[in-house]
UniProtKB/TrEMBL annotation:
Reversibly catalyzes the transfer of the carbamoyl group from carbamoyl phosphate (CP) to the N(epsilon) atom of ornithine (ORN) to produce L-citrulline. Carbamoyl phosphate binds at R49, T50, R99, H127, Q130, G249, P250. Its EC number is 2.1.3.2. Heterododecamer (2C3:3R2) of six catalytic PyrB chains organized as two trimers (C3), and six regulatory PyrI chains organized as three dimers (R2). One of its GO terms (cellular component) is cytosol. The gene is pyrB. This is Aspartate carbamoyltransferase.
């Protein structure tokens, strides 16, 4: 959780993330600080960005990376997550990266592991490395986080990204506004209309509608969700002149965001977020394994 990181550690990860971002841009591949270390990726939910960026991050630092094929694993024979964790631990990895549909699963298996465990997304709980890369992207773009007006809009109830970002960005002095369709709002969070949330915002962070976690049908006709709750070009015009749009991905084009905005060369930071994801995960792996090198 973001709660497990103090402000100084977060600041170090953002600084190091920006440094690795520049390193990656220079196409340098000569750092071997994780030589001899083994990183296991165990993803029990689908992923493109998080899984591949952790793989690339570990590879760029010289680690050996093993990605567990969950579909081919003994989980399918009924082995429990705890027994799987004990089994992986016996193989003496130096870090494990886990994504799981059960909120709290990474924290639970961390009790059984002798190495650092990184939460790559747990159910509707948190996605701390996404919040770290989002904060690094915002700080790189604006030169600061403090004082920025950040609108977080969409499926907030199911969004582990929103939960981690709310904690991190608030701690670093951003002014947050939240706008969700009423069934997708958090019970204890003030919920604005998307028009009010976007009004004068510096950052508009859109969230995917997580239909896989919805019991009820949204019942929206094609285009209805975008018109009522999504980020259209007209709505984005209410934001500050220099505002940017962000999205953790994957995007439902034409649902929570107009595809033109997602692809906007000046205003969209969505591709930059992915690039920063590799860099920030390099920083996290380096920090967590600093005492494990040869
Ligand atoms: N942002 C994010 O977690 O994307 P993936 O599900 O593709 O990893």
């Amino acid at each position: 959780s973001i709660d497990d990181l103090d402000d100084a550690t977060i600041a170090t990860i953002l600084d190091e993330g920006e440094r690795w971002f520049d390193y990656n841009r220079q196409r340098r591949r000569n750092d071997h600080r994780l030589d001899g270390l083994t990183v296991i990726n165990a993803f029990f939910e689908n992923s493109t960005r998080t899984l591949l960026s952790f793989e690339i991050a570990a590879n760029r630092l010289g680690a050996q990376v093993v990605t567990m094929q969950v579909e081919m694993s003994s989980i399918k024979k009924g082995e429990t997550l705890d027994d799987t964790a004990r089994t992986l631990n016996a193989m003496r990895p130096d870090a494990i990266v886990i994504r799981h549909a059960l909120t709290g699963a990474p924290a639970n298996i961390a009790r059984l592991m002798d190495c650092p465990v990184i939460n790559a997304g747990d159910g509707t709980g948190e996605h701390p490395t996404q919040a770290l890369l989002d904060a690094a992207t915002i700080r790189q773009h604006f030169g600061r986080i403090e004082g920025l007006k950040v609108a977080i809009c969409g499926d907030i109830r199911h969004s582990r990204v929103a939960h981690s970002n709310a904690k991190l960005l608030q701690r670093f002095g951003a002014e947050l506004r939240f706008a969700a369709p009423p069934p997708l709002a958090e019970a204890n969070v003030a919920n604005l209309s998307i028009d009010d949330a976007v009004d004068g915002a510096d950052v508009v962070m859109m969230l995917r509608i997580q239909r896989e976690r919805l019991d009820e049908e949204l019942g929206d006709a094609p285009g209805e969700f975008l018109a009522r709750y999504g980020l259209t070009l007209d709505r984005f015009a209410r934001a500050n002149a220099n505002a940017v749009v962000m999205h953790p991905g994957p995007i439902n084009r034409g649902v929570e965001i107009d595809g033109t905005l997602a692809d906007h060369a000046e205003r969209s930071l969505i591709v930059r977020q992915v690039e920063m994801g590799v860099a920030v995960r390099m920083a996290c792996l380096d920090l967590l394994t600093a005492d494990r090198g040869s």
